[in-house]
Design goal:
With about 130 residues, the protein is mainly alpha-helical. Helix 2 packs antiparallel against helix 3.
Length: about 130
């Protein structure tokens, strides 16, 4: 009887813990993979959000001038590609290509921001 109760208690504890383990873990407010980016309005929204993050990071000094310019050039390139696609109307393949390029630009941005967080003084040393 005691082993049955112990077994049921252990099973209940594991069952209660499983939903908590299944919760997603986010790294901040701008988590693109949790949203759908398949419409044109969302592609534009995503471009604006990435541009906003780039400008804010450049103002804070989290990106140096060269890094910020590289990321701005990436965003301009995506905007030019979108304009050429839009001239004939966006289809699903073109929208997927824009999203793929935005994913790549976002990964570059996150990589640059992660690298800047590990500089001397964690943002307090070598400030310009």
């Amino acid at each position: 009887m005691k082993t049955l109760i112990a077994t049921l208690a252990a099973a209940a504890a594991v069952t209660a813990a499983v939903p908590a383990m299944a919760q997603p873990y986010g790294h901040g407010p701008a988590r693109y993979e949790t949203q759908r980016w398949d419409s044109q309005a969302n592609v534009n929204q995503r471009q604006r959000e990435l541009e906003r993050i780039i400008e804010a990071a450049a103002r804070r000094g989290d990106l140096n001038r060269r890094q910020a310019n590289e990321l701005r050039n990436d965003m301009r390139s995506i905007a030019r590609l979108e304009a050429s696609y839009r001239s004939g109307g966006l289809n699903a393949r073109e929208r997927a290509e824009l999203n793929r390029r935005l994913d790549w630009a976002e990964r570059r941005l996150v990589s640059r921001l992660d690298n800047s967080a590990h500089r001397y003084g964690y943002g307090y040393g070598h400030r310009r």
